[in-house]
UniProtKB/TrEMBL annotation:
InterPro entries: MetI-like, MetI-like_sf. It comes from Paenibacillus chondroitinus. It is a multi-pass membrane protein. It is found in: Cell membrane. This is Carbohydrate ABC transporter permease.
Length: 292
């Protein structure tokens, strides 16, 4: 009877957990779904019923207007380059540094202490601006990447992962004549795909959401990120009016539906990446959290 009661309690608990998780997922997904639905609404349908879950008569008028204007693609190109180049550079530099710090050397604790302190101490915006100006990074594409090549938090996670790496493999490679560089590139990196994929996705999302650097360090409109463009599109009417003035030969869109169409176009690329790298999340993060 005790076992039956225990199983019954667990089953009831599982049901409640599932119900709560479904409710939380619905709450989190509703704003995104509403944004997608509204982007396919005509002006008349949006004004009469803004909170519909399904579009009665879907239209691509808002998307056609955005495509014909084409301004968003300039900023999407900049953000895409930042994401691709920044992710590759930051992932390599962070992993390379973490592997070196995972090896014992004189003064390693002092070095790690100084590195960890960078997580809690920052010079501030004005010193950063003055430093970037002296380095010639203001109004330069490199300002999006160079200051963020190494992330301290991810470096600590990768360092913990490399410290757990089997020493026997490295010793066997050294017997075969491999040096540290060859061991890192041919053995360590291929066997660290889960942690690299997980950290790489975090880097990707971070670079895709680049906003503050575009606001404070870039004045050239051709180098502005899509996140700043989207912010101006939502809060200002100047850029929005320029899109609405484009002659498309088609009616049925409004200012709000154009805003929603822009939001969907910015969110879609990064969302499509998640399903392909999701399986690496648990394994990748757990690899770096078992040992400090």
């Amino acid at each position: 009877m005790a076992n039956t009661s225990l199983v019954r309690k667990r089953s009831t608990g599982d049901i409640w957990n599932i119900m709560i998780m479904v409710l939380l997922c619905a709450i989190m997904l509703y704003p995104f779904w509403q944004t997608v639905v509204a982007s396919f609404m005509s002006e008349s349908e949006y004004l009469t019923s803004r909170f519909k879950m399904i579009v009665t008569m879907p239209t691509l008028a808002s998307y056609k207007q955005v495509f014909q204007d084409g301004t968003i693609f300039i900023h999407l190109r900049v953000t895409f380059l930042i994401t691709v180049i920044g992710t590759a550079v930051a992932l390599f530099m962070t992993a390379y540094s973490a592997y070196g710090l995972s090896k014992p050397f004189k003064g390693s604790k002092v070095v790690m202490f100084l590195i960890v302190m960078t997580m809690f101490m920052s010079a501030g915006l004005i010193p950063d601006y003055m430093n970037y100006k002296e380095l010639g990074l203001i109004n330069h594409f490199a300002v999006y990447i160079l200051p963020y090549m190494i992330n301290t938090f991810y470096l600590i996670i990768m360092r913990s992962t490399f410290m757990e790496f089997p020493k026997e493999l490295e010793e066997a490679a050294r017997i075969d004549g491999c040096n540290d560089f060859r061991i890192f590139f041919t053995i360590v990196l291929p066997l660290s795909k889960p942690i690299l994929a997980a950290i790489g996705l975090f880097f990707m999302v971070s670079f895709w959401n680049t906003y503050m650097q575009s606001v404070f360090f870039i004045t050239d409109k051709e180098l502005k990120t899509v996140q700043e463009y989207l912010q101006k599109m939502i809060t200002s009417t100047q850029d929005l009016e320029s899109i609405m003035l484009v002659e498309s030969g088609e009616e049925g869109f409004s200012a709000e539906t154009i805003r929603f169409a822009n939001i969907v176009m910015v969110l879609l690329p990064i969302i499509t990446v998640y399903p392909f790298l999701q399986k690496f999340f648990v394994n990748g993060i757990m690899m770096g959290s078992l040992k400090g």
